[in-house]
Write a structure and sequence with these properties.
The protein contains seven helices and 14 strands. The protein is of the alpha/beta class.
C-alpha cells in the first residue's frame, strides 16, 4: 500500500493579509479549491491509498473539509497540540505509517515523478530521497549541491545563483528514519536534520524541471491562483 505524509500545519503568517486568520495555509483557496486538494489529487494520481495529514493550526477546518476519506484515499490525522516544527511533525507522523512513504510540504506543489523517487531510493539503498527543482537566477531559496552519484553533498544558504537545485519539498523514505532523526520533540527537518546529517546519512536528490510553486508569499499565492485556473 502506497502511503504519504502531508505537512499541513503551516500558520501562513505571510499570507494572513490575503487569506485572513481563520484558515490554515494549506486551505488557502487556489482557483476555487483549497490548495491541499491539489496535493491530494496529485497523490491520488500516483496511486496513493493512505495519507497522514500532519495538522496543527486550525486543524478542525481541514478535518471538517476532507473527513476520513477523500478522492477514495484513506485520511489519518496526526494532530500537533503545540507547534513541533517540520521535524517534529514528521517524527510524529511517521508513527502512523506502515513502512515506506512519501512526505510532502503542504504549501508547495511540484510536478515530478513519484515513481522515480521510489525507484532511485531502492537503487541507492538510501535513507532519504528528496526531489530537487532546477532554478535559474534565484535568491529566494538555499540550494542543494550533489556529487557525481546524485548524493547530497552540501546545502548552501540563500544567495543569488545563476543556476542551481532547490529542495522542492517532496521526499521518499521509510519508517526507519525515526531512528536517525534528532531526539528532541521540536525541531526543523531542514536545519536540524538535513543540513547537519547529509554527510552521515545516505540522502540523494532527484532533479526535475517540472512545474513548481510555493504559495508561502502573496506574490506566488496569486501566481498559483492563476496557474491552477489555467490548468483547469
Amino acid at each position: 500500500m502506497r502511503e504519504a505524509i502531508v505537512l499541513a500545519g503551516g500558520l501562513g503568517t505571510r499570507l494572513r493579509g490575503v487569506i485572513g486568520t481563520e484558515l490554515p495555509k494549506p486551505m488557502a483557496s487556489i482557483a476555487g479549491k483549497p490548495f491541499l486538494h491539489y496535493l491530494l489529487e496529485q497523490l491520488k494520481g500516483w496511486n496513493t491509498e493512505r495519507i497522514v495529514l500532519s495538522v496543527g493550526h486550525k486543524h478542525e477546518v481541514i478535518q471538517q473539509a476532507f473527513g476520513d476519506r477523500y478522492l477514495g484515499i484513506q485520511l489519518v490525522y496526526s494532530v500537533e497540540t503545540e507547534p513541533l516544527g517540520t521535524g517534529g511533525a514528521i517524527r510524529q507522523s511517521l508513527e502512523h505509517v506502515s513502512d515506506t512513504c512519501f512526505i510532502l510540504n503542504g504549501d508547495s506543489y511540484f510536478d515530478t515523478s513519484f515513481d522515480a523517487l521510489e525507484k532511485t531510493f531502492t537503487n541507492h539503498q538510501a535513507d532519504l530521497m528528496m526531489s530537487l527543482k532546477h532554478v535559474e537566477k534565484s535568491s529566494r531559496y538555499g540550494t542543494v549541491q550533489l556529487d557525481q552519484n546524485n548524493r547530497v553533498a552540501q546545502f548552501n544558504e540563500k544567495q543569488y545563483v545563476e543556476a542551481g537545485f532547490i529542495n522542492a519539498g517532496i521526499y521518499f523514505t521509510t519508517k526507519a528514519l525515526l531512528d536517525k532523526l534528532p531526539q528532541q520533540q521540536k525541531f526543523s527537518f531542514e536545519e536540524d536534520y538535513l543540513k547537519p546529517f547529509a554527510q552521515r546519512d545516505k540522502i540523494y536528490g532527484v532533479p526535475s524541471d517540472g512545474y513548481f510553486i510555493d504559495i508561502g508569499i502573496p506574490e506566488d499565492y496569486a501566481r498559483a491562483d492563476k496557474d491552477f485556473a489555467t490548468k483547469g
